[in-house]
TrEMBL record:
The chain crosses the membrane at residues 7-27, 47-68, 80-99, 111-132. It comes from Candidatus Nitrosopumilus sediminis. Keywords: Membrane, Transmembrane, Transmembrane helix. This is Uncharacterized protein.
Length: 145
């Protein structure tokens, strides 16, 4: 496999990891253990940590294979990038649906708007991947003389 395919696979894995991390922290705050001490700064800092560990590198790792293959296109790489965008979208929809169950003491702007932000950004990832799947391979011109 070429390096761009491995980069696309890694970006899908990081998108899935970010969605899983966000769902797990939101579900933790929905039903915290009795002895847990949770303050809003802890919740916000964890969200920032997950963004910097998961979705920021995933976006970079999705952009690099796009730029490497945009001249000739690639159905498999485009499909992987689309899959990463879909995973991100579904994960953020699940997090957004959990917002109603979270105690109002834990709701901050970061908690409320992070799923919305990435729900808005995930169609861009899907469109980039779809562009790669539709791109036609450019044939080199034959020189007869």
């Amino acid at each position: 496999m070429a390096i761009e395919k491995w980069l696309a696979i890694t970006s899908v894995a990081l998108f899935a990891m970010f969605a899983g991390e966000m769902i797990s922290i939101y579900s933790y705050v929905v039903d915290p253990p009795e002895n847990a001490i949770i303050d809003d700064s802890w919740f916000d800092s964890k969200i920032f940590q997950f963004i910097s560990i998961g979705v920021a590198p995933a976006g970079i790792l999705a952009a690099v294979p796009f730029f490497m293959t945009k001249q000739y296109g690639s159905k498999s790489i485009g499909g992987l990038i689309v899959a990463g965008g879909v995973i991100l979208l579904v994960g953020m929809i699940v997090c957004y649906m959990m917002l109603d169950e979270i105690d109002d003491n834990y709701i901050t702007n970061i908690v409320r708007f992070t799923p919305v932000l990435f729900m808005i950004l995930s169609p861009a990832v899907i469109i980039v991947g779809a562009y790669l799947t539709k791109q036609k391979k450019v044939r080199p011109k034959k020189e007869f003389f």
